[in-house]
Amino acid sequence: MTVADQAQRLRDLVKNEAVHTSSPVDPPPVLHRTTRSASGDAVHPPKPVAAPESRHSNTAPSLPEAGPKAHVIAVASGKGGVGKTNVAVNLGVVLAQLGKKVALVDVDMGLANADVICGVKAPYNLAHLIGPQKRKLREIAVDAPGGFKLIPGANGIGEMADLPTPMLDRLISHLTQIESQCDFVILDTSAGINSAVIAFAGMADTVLVVTTPEPTAVTDAYGLVKSVLKRTPLANLYLLVNQVENELQGKEVHQRIAMVARRFLQREVGFAGSIPYDKGVGLSVLKRIPFCIALPGARASLAVSHLGAALVRRTERADAVTPAHRRGFFARIGQWLGRARQPNG
Ligand SMILES: Nc1ncnc2c1ncn2[C@@H]1O[C@H](COP(=O)(O)OP(=O)(O)OP(=O)(O)O)[C@@H](O)[C@H]1O
Ligand SMILES: [Mg+2]
Predict the structure, then answer these.
(1) Is 2 part of a structural domain of the chain?
(2) Which atom of ligand 1 is nearest to the CA of 279?
(3) How far is the CA of 239 from the centre of ligand 1 (A)?
(4) Half-sphere exposure for 106 (CA within 13 Å, toward CB)
(5) Which is the closest atom of ligand 1 to the Cα of 86?
(6) I need a labelling partner for 20 at 20 to 30 A (CA). Which of 94, 123, 131, 260 fits?
């Protein structure tokens, strides 16, 4: 099968699977394993949208292959404050409760606060890993409630893309270790469109684009979708509508974004479902206990449980089709960011 044939098959798969609105938390189609070549890069993107920098490069130096890698879920948003960190933390809880080895990496380098929502004391963070202290990964990782590992973020060290090369290399090599030891790595990213978020979202196996039904949040979510898809046409983007009044509201928000993406970008955006507005979320944040632990029966907790279960089912199905022998996510990120800083890269 030629690369063009494969790309067409993928488009058809995405078309058939990506848009589905039958349940409050529709299982997102996790097609990542089948979208990559044996070397780990995505199959060359199809034509409709020009990719300034695709996930496949003939000129890239080859990196060592390793064993199976974690499924990487990036949690992103256009507008800030829509609920990314709460989603990331509670998804970590749910996946760990399902028996998966999970690490949550707080890559929000501006306002890292996953440790606050988890209610854990983190003496060290990513800054200590890459700074002169050179802390070990096991020193900075903390046990989060629910049974996952939290890698606390560093406030104010600047975006990953701006780190000096030795620091970036060190960061990438540590994050690569985490990836090889886990079933799932969740990335809590910063709001908005910056080069690190575009790279994370472009290369993650699944991207949850979180929005609320507010028009400003929806507009910004579309802005993010557009930027990511322009750069990486095969990115696996799924909209997660948080703080909805009811199921229908979430579906309508998804349909609006999916329709515009189809029309103007010729791409599908999947639907990961919706999470109801729930006063219990705010109360749990005040108590610094993830809401899936503090209030397991709350509507928001049930929605995140459904999402986690759907992700596990889809991932297992995808792994059964294509074993995950591919270059790791963080190795690809390192390559991407490294190439971006080369004069002609
Ligand atoms: N489903 C929900 N129901 C009610 N309130 C919610 C819900 N989800 C999030 N919130 C509220 O929104 C606030 C912001 O959430 P969170 O910190 O997770 O957003 P964020 O997207 O990570 O923000 P930032 O962009 O600053 O990183 C929370 O403190 C919480 O009170
Ligand atoms: Mg946050």
Answers:
(1) no
(2) 4
(3) 16
(4) 31
(5) 18
(6) 94
